């Protein structure tokens, strides 16, 4: 074995293929931004989108491609107007789950065969005001950046 070959892992990456498909990156970006961002992050949205695009461009450059030819920044912004609704709707569905306490979520292994599905997706969000404020922030942001 060569001395310069590492035998131990140096990085760990988690890949979630559950919702993967060939589509605009805005589906994933909008879901991430709206489900995790508070008003503070949404105020810096332009910076976040530019940072994403710079990283995307650099990655394509390393692969020997030109991002401005393949998918210019103007296309990313146009895709935001077209597809960010996905992230908005997913965030509205997921925020009660994200903001509830761990003990308030029904574990799948604890479900009974005759249990109503609505019981499984009903969450006790103790900080309802926070949840409503986050939803208000993302809806306002969506309106500002898509209409």
UniProtKB/TrEMBL annotation:
SUPFAM superfamilies: Protein kinase-like (PK-like). The chain crosses the membrane at residues 83-99. It comes from the Eukaryota. Keywords: Membrane, Transmembrane, Transmembrane helix. The keyword Nucleotide-binding does not apply. Coiled coil: none annotated. Gene3D superfamilies: 3.90.1200.10. PANTHER family: PROTEIN KINASE-LIKE DOMAIN-CONTAINING. This is CHK kinase-like domain-containing protein. It comes from Rhamnusium bicolor.
């Amino acid at each position: 074995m060569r001395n310069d070959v590492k035998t131990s892992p140096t990085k760990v990456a988690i890949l979630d293929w559950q919702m993967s498909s060939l589509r605009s990156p805005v589906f994933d970006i909008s879901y991430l931004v709206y489900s995790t961002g508070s008003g503070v992050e949404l105020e810096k949205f332009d910076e976040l989108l530019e940072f994403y695009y710079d990283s995307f461009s650099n990655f394509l450059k390393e692969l020997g491609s030109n991002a401005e030819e393949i998918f210019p920044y103007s296309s990313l912004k146009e895709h935001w107007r077209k597809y960010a609704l996905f992230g908005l709707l997913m965030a509205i569905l997921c925020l009660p789950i994200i903001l509830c306490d761990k003990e308030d979520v029904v574990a799948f292994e604890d479900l009974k065969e005759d249990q109503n599905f609505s019981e499984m997706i009903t969450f006790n969000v103790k900080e309802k005001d926070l949840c409503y404020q986050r939803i208000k922030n993302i809806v306002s942001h969506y309106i500002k950046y898509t209409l």
